[in-house]
Specification:
The chain contains six helices and nine strands; from the N terminus they run E-E-E-H-E-E-H-H-E-H-E-E-H-E-H. The chain is an alpha+beta fold and 243 residues long. The radius of gyration is 23 Å and the shape is globular.
Length: 243
């Protein structure tokens, strides 16, 4: 039997955290140790590929606790063998956790996503641009290859420039409404330009309204989401003391 770890937060004198059932319908328990608290639930076997129901139950617990306090959200699958191991993890990473909670105090994550075709669609002159590896050099001179290579990388550079310009356009009207930001560029697996912001909870509505007004062209649609626990502003490689 293992325990699934949902999030870490500061202990409170009177823990009133009665979250709904966690993954597998197990009750969520709060363990306090050394000034820190952690939400856990029993887990029969860790599932490296959880189904949608398990992920939603996990996120529901984290979001419930986040609505009541500052939390360090963990990634799904973070476990401890027992309460003794959890206490050891909290002791080992106490300074990191405490500092991170300080940095996240009063903040929430907001997201803005833009469809890839709103920022990386190449102009007509780039339509024929292909990878040099796919361009046949029929005359054997290498000229065709070099021309294709120039066109290919020129198109990629212009794409990056357009993405950078869009990020500036989106962020300019949001100045003063966030404390940190992260940008996730489009990829084949995620064809969206994604921006994540740490926003004071008291400014969430102002941020949401300003973000909707950030693009004036009326053609590019934005997806504004949040407030969420600050998943994208936690370095899990440094804080996860569990496996």
């Amino acid at each position: 039997m293992k325990y699934l770890l949902y999030c870490v937060f500061r202990s409170v004198p009177q823990p009133e955290l009665e979250a709904s059932a966690g993954v597998e319908g197990k009750p969520v328990l709060v363990m306090d140790h050394g000034g820190l608290g952690a939400a856990i639930s029993e887990l029969k076997e860790p599932d490296l590929a959880p189904d949608v129901a398990a992920v939603l139950a996990y996120e529901g617990v984290v979001e419930f606790l986040f609505s009541r306090r500052t939390v360090i959200p963990m990634r799904y699958g973070c476990t401890v063998r027992d309460r003794s191991e959890l206490a050891a993890v909290l002791d080992e990473h106490h300074k990191q956790y405490d500092g991170l909670i300080d940095g996240l105090e009063g903040l929430a994550e907001m997201g803005i996503q833009v469809p890839a075709n709103g920022c990386d669609a190449p102009p007509e002159t780039d339509a024929a641009a292909v990878s040099p590896a796919r361009f046949p050099d029929s005359n054997g001179s290498g000229v065709s290859y070099l021309l294709a290579k120039k066109q290919y990388y020129g198109s990629a550079d212009r794409m990056v420039e357009r993405q950078d310009e869009l990020v500036k356009t989106l962020c300019q009207p949001l100045s003063g409404l966030f404390v940190r930001r992260k940008v996730e560029l489009p990829s084949r697996g995620a064809p969206l330009l994604s921006l994540y912001f740490l926003v004071p909870r008291t400014s969430v509505e102002c941020f949401r309204e300003a973000s909707r007004q950030s693009l004036k062209d009326g053609r590019t649609k934005l997806l504004v989401s949040g407030p969420w626990p600050p998943y994208n502003f936690v370095d899990f490689s440094n804080i996860n003391g569990t496996s």
